[in-house]
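Researcher: Next entry in the queue.
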Amino acid sequence: LGGNYFFNRRTYTDMYGRYFLKRYDDETASDQSDEDRASIGFSFLRNFYRETAYMGTIEVSDYSYAADSRNFMSVQVGVGIESVISHDSRFSFRTGFQNVEYEDASLGSDSSPYVSMSMTYAKVESTRFKGGVDYVIREADAAPFASQTAMDFRLGMEHDWQKNVTVGVNGAYHNGDYD
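Model: Structure for this entry, 179 residues:
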């Protein structure tokens, strides 16, 4: 759920709230890895040129697992730029700092820079091709780890099937490192 508020035609905010849940059918996996994540985010954007916006962002996420020892909270603060490269291409770059605090005090905390880049290509207005790469601390795919440093590559396609209906397909390659 999200929304935008425009202060004027060049300055606006983007706000959102998200809730994710992951559940496993296997009881053993479920006992360790069922996951809930709640995130809220806020971006402040300012168009300095007709087709380029600079931004400041903040996102707070709370990760809760069935195994409480894996719970953590993540805070990302960053800056970025979005630019229309041509009439059919858009580029986005964000970078910043991420801090992760674990509920289990023996795990301490993690801090890391993060980077996110994406490109959208739309030769036909109703169809968009997207690609991107991210380097970030994210939830762990394997118990007993709580989080991992990861590089993600993603590709996708969206098509506006009807006026209010968009369908799409996405794929990702994920390469994680557990310290």
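Model: The longest strand covers residues 147-162.
Researcher: Noted, moving on.
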